[in-house]
Amino acid sequence: MASNSLLSKIATNDGHGENLAYFDGWKAYDGNPFHATQNPDGVIQMGLAENPLSLDVIEEWIKKNPKASICTPEGVAEFKNVANFQDYHGFPHFRKAIANFMSKARGGRVKFDPDRVVMAGGATGANETVMFCLADPGDAFLVPSPYYPAFYRDLGWRTGVKIVPVDCDSSNNFQVTRAALEAAYEKARNNNINIKGLIITNPSNPLGTTVDRDTLTSLVKFINDKNIHLVCDEIYAGTVFSCPKFTCVTEVLQDVKNCNRDLIHIVYSLSKDMGVPGLRIGIVYSYNDTVVNCARKMSSFGLVSSQTQHMLSAMLLDDEFVSNFLETSSKRLARRHRFFTTGLEEVGINCLKGNAGLFCWMDLRKLLKDQTFEAEMVLWRMIINKVKLNVSPGSSFRCVEPGWFRVCFANMDEHTVEVALKRIRAFVGLEGDKKSNNADHQLFVNSPRKNRRQEGLRLSFPATRRYEEVMSPRMISPHSPMPRSPLLRAS
Amino acid sequence: MCMLSTKATCNSHGQDSSYFLGWQEYEKNPFHEVNNTNGIIQMGLAENQLCFDILKSWLAKNPDAAGFKRNGESIFGELALFQDYHGIPEFKKALAEFMSEIRGNKVSFDPNHLVLAAGATSANETLMFCLAEPGEAFLLPTPYYPGFDRDLKWRTGVEIVPIQCTSSNGFQITETALQEAYQEAQKRNLRVKGVLVTNPSNPLGTTMTRNELNMLVSFVEDKGIHLVSDEIYSGTAFSTPSFVSVMEILKERECDENGSDVWNRVHVVYSLSKDLGLPGFRVGAIYSNDDRVVSAATKMSSFGLVSSQTQYLLAAMLSDKKLTKNYISENHKRLRQRQKKLVSGLQKAGISCLKGNAGLFCWVDMRHLLRSNTFEAEMELWKKIVYEVRLNISPGSSCHCTEPGWFRVCFANMSEDTLDLALQRLKAFVTEYYNIPEVNGHHQTIHLNHSRRRSLTKWVFRLSFDDRSPIPGR
Lengths: 491, 474
Description:
- The complex is a heterodimer of chains A (491) and B (474).
- Chain A is an alpha/beta fold.
- Chain A has helices at residues 9-12, 24-31, 55-64, 79-84, 92-105, 122-134, 151-156, 178-190, 213-226, 249-253, 289-298, 306-316, 319-346, 373-387, 414-428; strands at 44-45, 117-120, 140-145, 162-167, 195-201, 229-233, 264-269, 282-286, 350-351, 359-363, 389-390, 392-393, 404-408.
- Chain A folds into two domains: 9-50 and 358-488, Aspartate Aminotransferase, domain 1 (Alpha-Beta Complex); 58-321, 3-Layer(aba) Sandwich (Aspartate Aminotransferase, domain 2).
- Helix content of chain A is 35%, strand content 12%.
- Chain B has two domains: 9-53 and 325-468, Aspartate Aminotransferase, domain 1; 60-323, Type I PLP-dependent aspartate aminotransferase-like (Major domain) (Aspartate Aminotransferase, domain 2), CATH 3.40.640.
- Chain B contains 16 helices and 15 strands.
- Chain B has a seven-stranded mixed β-sheet with strand order 4-10-9-8-7-5-6, sandwiched between helices. A four-stranded antiparallel β-sheet of chain B has the order 11-12-15-14.
- The chains are: A alpha/beta (491), B alpha/beta (474).
């Protein structure tokens, strides 16, 4: 029978996933954020998968293309039409621009149909919408672990869909195997759990790797055989910076006999590839007409602002810009990745060999006291409190092997990366004179907040917990000093 | 086993309803002042196109805000990265103050209790997710916005039970109707979690009286349930009686935190789509005094945040008090004039409206033009109006009205000339079809001229939905 509570279960349960110990790292960071000059001993944020490295390229374009904004004198003639436009099909040129960008981010190897491009409120909204279209409350999706922690919320909170993890481990570089899928599927079925599909993130978060063609083909074969859906969250497709190149699921469909395309769906976003999470551009792309229609109707709950559609249309239809951006971004990510991983290797810390994403999957198993998650937590707290780096422990990604950590490298400037590496060296004991003197800090640091500078427009950070990749507690990287806005001041 | 979800294959998004079909017909033959003067005039779209010039001129004077600049320096990068679901503080502050200004500063809103959403569509759905379980119900006075069937019910599983209102008292909510609705829900074994009202009302174009509001507050207090007040038209209340927000009533009743719990059970939904005419920007908000609702809704807003560039632009706009003051008053003035034009034009055609003082539409009484007092007759009349008169208006049945013959006609989404033309067409239709002489503001008895009636089977009506966006324009 209905509960007696005045609020819904959804409103009062933990399905939003924010009450995890995982947030202790954020608290430590919030309480003592690193700043190059003003708080050089603060905690460095390495838990945030953001990509600001090539925003300057976008800014340049915006400066040169005032017409793309509906607010400039050059562009204001369109203000009324744009401000008025709420058609959930989106601007045709926006869909065309997105299809074009998606294609280019895949090296032109796949062509996308603009009529299948459906908007959503970021990838967060897109993933939820896809679940609403494909599954009923109580149904389940297979998700290879380790996986993005917020899937718990995005896939299941309001939809009632369950996650059935498919465990992967380092024995084969965390690749998903057919055997693992079959085992998870059977086990679920034996427990009367109705599996509606498989969702993969390719390139993977947190692994920072792309799924190879053969594995991808086997995944498609698997779902095709079982007649369940395949959702490919490809939001990092454009962050591939080295070999092997990215294989989009579309590329392997032809290799699977009698492939039922009605089962294939792609989730995309510009938040990672272009580094614009604030603009909330999420996309559902499905080969299933009914899903396209349904997702489009549902997109009413999270349309992309027409102002944003208008600007991005012009930007992404500019082929020269797109090529230049993708190339520049890829180069800068490669360089940053190399810089960081080399630094780690120099002190004997290895990462899973990555070729994509904004992070490394760092192997600290040998630093564990024992191969347990308790030991992982102990190590993690030490990293936060002594080394003063907010990294993300593998357990928060539901990794089944203790000792792995996701470390983001793109959301800071190079100097900060150097500082982080220095601290890691010191921690591992190779930099004698730079021992950690701040030995006995408690978990919840009480030191006065240095650098509580009000950067940009974000002026205060409530003490409530945050969820990484969903919200950033500040508007800009804490590592770049920006003057306070004279135009907009909080009281 | 069904391959897709029940939600994907069912009908409760409500988009196969007649409300949207008229829109489809419009799409096939849309009126254009120059290129298609015989086309269908869109009068089913509750948009406010009357004051864009004011916003455009503000933009011209404020280049920094317009171009994501601060002192000439670009802050695009900051905005691009900002995805905090608490929103840009300056924006929420400005929005809270704007909401207060619209209410004559009789109430104030705390930005920390304001949750941003991707339009009122998202705000309403989010509130349902927070306040009710699947299978529970909200009571809504009829007639109501057709989109509620989707926004409140579709993905949430919440039911709507109507509070029947009639023309006998101007469609106001009565105590009896409320109680009857509540009992009806109980009969259907539905647990009622709250009442949701739209004030000012869509489709009525009227503001709720103090009486009604007090009655509602007492009712929800007594039943221990929620009250959601969708006040997205609050800035369009252009003539007396002035708009009274439910928040004002709570304040008058001193239902503050130390008083009755009803304080925590009243929630307001707002948006800039109607008042500012910016539906494309997807700016909605939920206001609640209940911290838990604020907290849950904030987390849910991750599924539909407001674009940071839009927040930034609007923060600058709404912080400019000269602009907001001028806009609010000019908006009222223009809406008032426009509504007057529609009302008097309709009168000349022998058609009256519910006396309205708000909104972007009139609730028009065409009962006297019905062949019979039935919804079939209403549909016949509606089809004639869409196909012959070539006006897309919204039939009352699509708004769940219990009385046939009422139609919602929008007046703010077109030029004055277009409105004139629409009125001419309507008058010509009434005159020709019902064979009545020129009417000078008097309501004439209509004698149907059967020899002139065309065969109704002439209109082939395509019922299957070809996936046009219906534009959730309320």
